[in-house]
Design a protein that fits this description.
The complex is a heterodimer of chains A (230) and B (341). By secondary structure, chain A is mostly helical. Chain A is built from nine helices and six strands. Chain B has a six-stranded mixed β-sheet with strand order 6-7-8-3-9-10, sandwiched between helices. Chain B has a five-stranded antiparallel β-sheet with strand order 13-12-11-14-20, with no helix packed on it. The chains are: A mainly alpha (230), B alpha+beta (341).
């Protein structure tokens, strides 16, 4: 008998487990390949193609598109595309940080609730997913409209001109981004926080740690594995 | 007498569940005190309240005369060895042991020597650089002990520290724990449901049931003189005999039994199987003649079940006794314990 393992109380081989795991994953992998990975890969050759007079793809391969991305446009070098690219990266990074900072307390709040209530709260976090993203984004436009309290408050405090909407502003962008991506961060983070070993927290407290030390040693090491997902 | 730890009138409820009702504890300095009881009796709750991990609903806790009741765990000079050891998985053994010292900002040189001394006490110095997941259960338990002891707490708390060890290892560890505690002279409170463990390590045992203390005494007092059926049955095995008071003793289904100190009209007596004596002929008092229902050979002793009163007795395996034999046994008056329900 080669290399048997006990997996959740079942005696099996690691090869059989691997095969079983792949069988479970293959529909998901196939879907992701066909609808996500392959189309993205298909974009790479398109990046090297040129544009015809009607905007169609002409299969003449050239580096032209990349030059233009780096700023070498028709009228000489301008940093526009680079600025746009840079800004996108900054927005993404800041959104991630804000989402992580907001998710942590949310996850702990949910994890501290009695087991039955937890799924209720998680459902609340997921429900927005059921609405189309475009519709949700447009809904933000309504919330930030000039007639709504938020915009009125902002103009009263002098941040914007009276009767102006709160968009398009960086604030609005971040609001939309964080709102969209918060559940993506919360769910894997919650999965980790739920498995937290509270006896470590108690041990740290018993060993004279203040809150920061408890956080650093009893809580942080565990959910760190969730960060790549964020 | 001055007590190391005193707790008065401790009440604790969890919603509709009452965990502790009016519990008083007094532990002497240097004593090994055990809280013994079945699951759900409140012993762990009491330990956590002493540790500062839970707050009682009412009551006071005093450590050497200082009122601890409102202090959180980190301000009490009390350390706990947890049931699952709770070693920090991302820290090495040495860092784990040093954790409490670093929290209290001891200088590094002092930490180094203290950690070494603590690991030496539990014979784990060679493992100082290992990570917890590279250790066996018994080794993890020693590290957890060292981590608590290095802080030189006034009271050491142990929450069923041996429940995760296999039976053979447990006996060795129990004896080592007792020796270590005696050598250090540190007041210790252990929580367990294992009566062998309680009898082995303790100076005094408090038997608990349903959130209250049932009986407190030395292992010998608790074992030889249980106060009621619960304690008699919880520690070891006991023969329980229902009886009515009669002049000079009691009347029971086994006949008249001579016993002193009967202060009820009807009640129960208890006698331990090993105190029931096998006789060749009828004894002068407290004799019972009975057919043997079963006899089990256990190597170092015989377990015999009698038909009369469903008595169980334990005897040295000299005589060959088998089921169907008729024997005389004596229930010595001094071995009969009057129970108060």
């Amino acid at each position: 008998m080669t290399d048997t393992v006990i997996w959740y109380g079942e005696l099996t081989t690691s090869r059989s487990l691997l095969r079983r795991g792949l069988a479970h994953l293959s529909p998901g992998i196939a879907w992701t390949l066909v609808f996500l990975a392959i189309p993205m890969l298909a974009l790479i050759p398109v990046g090297f193609a040129s544009r015809g007079s009607y905007g169609q793809i002409v299969w003449e391969f050239t580096w032209n598109n990349f030059y233009r991305l780096l700023g070498y446009g028709t009228f000489g070098w301008s940093p526009d595309y680079l600025i746009i690219l840079g800004r996108s990266c900054v927005v993404a990074a800041v959104t991630t940080i804000i989402c992580v900072l907001l998710s942590y307390p949310l996850c702990f709040y949910i994890a501290c609730k009695p087991a039955r209530k937890r799924y209720f709260w998680l459902t609340l976090v997921i429900i927005p997913f059921w609405t189309n993203l475009v519709i949700r984004t447009y809904a933000w436009l309504l919330v930030l409209a000039p007639q709504m309290p938020l915009a009125k408050l902002a103009s009263f405090l002098g941040f914007i001109a009276p009767d102006a909407p709160l968009y398009p502003t960086p604030f609005a962008v971040y609001l939309g981004m964080v709102g969209t991506f918060l559940p993506f961060v919360t769910m894997p983070l919650y999965a980790n926080v739920e498995k937290l070993d509270w006896s470590l927290v108690e041990a740290a407290r018993d060993l004279y740690s203040g809150s920061w030390r408890v956080f650093r040693h009893a809580i942080l090491p565990r959910p760190r594995r969730a960060w790549p997902w964020a | 007498m001055e007590y190391s730890l005193e707790a008065y009138a401790i009440y604790k409820n969890y919603g509709s569940v009452t965990a502790l009702t009016n519990v008083d504890v007094r532990v002497r300095p240097g004593e090994f005190f055990t809280l013994l009881g079945p699951s759900g009796c409140g012993k762990t709750t009491l330990l956590r309240i002493i540790a500062g991990l839970e707050m009682p609903d009412s009551g006071t806790i005093m450590l050497r005369g200082n009122n601890l009741t409102s202090l959180p765990a980190r301000e009490r000079n009390v350390n706990t060895v947890f049931q699952n050891y709770a070693l920090f998985p991302h820290l090495s053994v040495a860092d784990n042991v040093a954790f409490g010292l670093r929290s209290r900002k001891f200088p590094e040189e002092v930490i180094g020597s203290k950690v070494h001394a603590a690991l030496d006490m539990v014979h784990m110095t060679e493992f100082a650089a290992r990570m917890p997941d590279q250790l066996s259960g018994g080794q993890q338990q020693r590290v957890a002990m060292a981590r608590a002891l290095v802080n030189e707490p006034e009271i050491l708390l142990l929450d069923e520290p041996m429940s995760a060890l296999d039976a053979k290892l447990r006996t060795t560890v129990q004896e080592e724990l007792r020796q270590l505690q005696q050598r250090l002279g540190i007041t210790s409170i252990l929580v367990t449901h294992d009566q062998d463990e309680a009898l082995t390590v303790s100076d005094r045992i408090a038997v608990m049931n349903k959130g209250q203390f049932v009986q407190v005494g030395t292992p010998m007092e608790i074992y030889e003189r249980p106060c009621n059926r619960f304690v008699a049955n919880f520690l070891g095995k006991a023969n329980i005999i229902e009886a009515t008071r009669a002049p000079g003793g009691v009347q029971s289904e086994l006949g008249f039994l001579q016993v002193n100190g009967v202060d009820w009209e009807t009640g129960y007596l208890a006698i331990r199987p090993e105190r029931v004596r096998l006789r060749d002929e009828a004894p002068s008092v407290n004799g019972v003649q009975s057919r043997v229902r079963d006899a089990f050979y256990r190597g170092d002793h015989l377990d015999i079940w009698l038909e009369a009163g469903n008595l169980r007795l334990r005897t040295a395996p000299h005589r060959a006794i088998s089921s169907g034999d008729t024997v005389w046994v004596e229930l010595p008056a001094e071995a009969l314990v009057v129970l108060h329900d």
